[in-house]
Write a structure and sequence with these properties.
The chain has 325 residues and is mostly helical. It has a single domain, classed as Ribonucleotide Reductase, subunit A, CATH 1.10.620.20. 66% of the residues lie in helices and 0% in strands. The longest helix has 31 residues.
């Protein structure tokens, strides 16, 4: 489906500001943290003692927390899918490397550290069946995903604004639970990842803010469309060996809800925060279709809250092949 020309015009206008926005929301590589900053150094004579300490601390974490941590890691490891998806949106010029393609590559480079750090931690922890986790990761990348945005930059930026906020919440809550279990090392790891996600969320939120200034009608319709489809999680098609596509996601989601790492109420809170960030209630000059979309969006949190109140999360834990406890 061909996009309205105005969306490409807006992307071209915003592209002129990408150097400024990249400098604001991305960190210089030499100044950024790297996974090795948080893990035992294999060159250290005391390396094996530090690994033993890491593994002792890992024993105190609950089964559901392990399930969520591993699922989060697999989601982060599927970064090639997300980068390829974003590189295909209208207005991104890979061949001539415009400001948008530079942003996506630099964003991907920062995000890549997340999976690297968590994967190494899980391997060293001695609590994870790494082959099973790796099978799930390969499946998630191979199966691909469809977030309902097509090549539309407006819908993609609504999605990434929402998703970055969601991953911030998930990693931050895992950090809190790890700290409660006495695992300060893992808490620091998840904390720095959450901080990255918050910074990236701020960037995508600003992209959408600027689009609202230039093209309020079309971006309102894009926001409306994404919320009607629902913001699907990147791990929606998660599976493990022998399982069908997507068969594991509900169990992963149930584990996250049981320990309150990410719940349906968080989904609603994120929506409300975006309605406020983008000043949806007070945007003027909208056409009839955009006004109707705004009405739907403003009423949606209460509607979702009524639905969420009726959801019952299973108490029984699912047995994940990933977990070798």
């Amino acid at each position: 489906m061909k996009l309205p020309n105005i969306r490409l015009e807006v992307m071209n206008t915003l592209e002129k500001s990408m150097n400024e926005l990249s400098a604001k929301y991305l960190k210089p590589i030499e100044e950024n943290w790297q996974p090795s900053d948080f893990l035992p150094d294999s060159r250290d004579p005391n390396f094996f003692e530090k690994i033993k300490e890491l593994q002792e601390l890992a024993k105190e974490m609950s089964y559901d927390l392990w399930a969520v941590l591993i699922g989060d890691t697999i989601t982060e490891e599927a970064l090639p899918t997300y980068e390829a998806w974003l590189m295909n949106i209208e207005g991104v010029d890979q061949e001539n490397e415009n400001g948008w393609s530079k942003w996506i590559r630099a964003w991907s480079a920062e995000e890549n550290r997340h999976g690297d750090l968590l994967n190494k931690y899980l391997y060293l922890s001695g609590r994870v069946n790494m082959r099973e986790m790796e099978v799930s990761t390969q499946y998630l990348i191979a199966d691909g995903f469809d977030i309902g945005t097509s090549h539309d930059p407006y819908k993609n930026f609504v999605y990434t604004s929402f998703q970055e906020l969601a991953t911030n919440i998930s990693h931050r809550r895992v950090a809190t639970l790890a700290k409660k279990a006495g695992n300060n090392q893992l808490a620091k790891m998840c904390g720095v990842i959450a901080s990255d996600e918050a910074r990236h969320a701020s960037a995508y939120i600003e992209f959408v803010k600027r689009i609202f200034d230039l093209d309020p009608n079309e971006i309102m319709l894009a926001f409306d469309d994404m919320m009607k489809k629902k913001i699907v999680m990147p791990a929606l098609l998660l599976r493990q060996s022998g399982g069908a596509i997507g068969s594991l996601f509900s169990h992963f989601s149930d584990a996250a809800q049981r320990i309150k790492v990410y719940t349906t109420y968080d989904y609603i809170d994120i929506l409300e925060s975006l309605l406020k960030e983008w000043n949806i209630e007070k945007i003027g000059g909208l056409n009839e279709s955009a006004e109707k979309a705004r009405d739907y969006l403003m009423a949606l949190p209460n509607r979702l809250r009524r639905i969420s109140d009726r959801i019952v999360v299973p108490e029984k834990q699912y047995e994940f092949k990933w977990i070798g406890i």
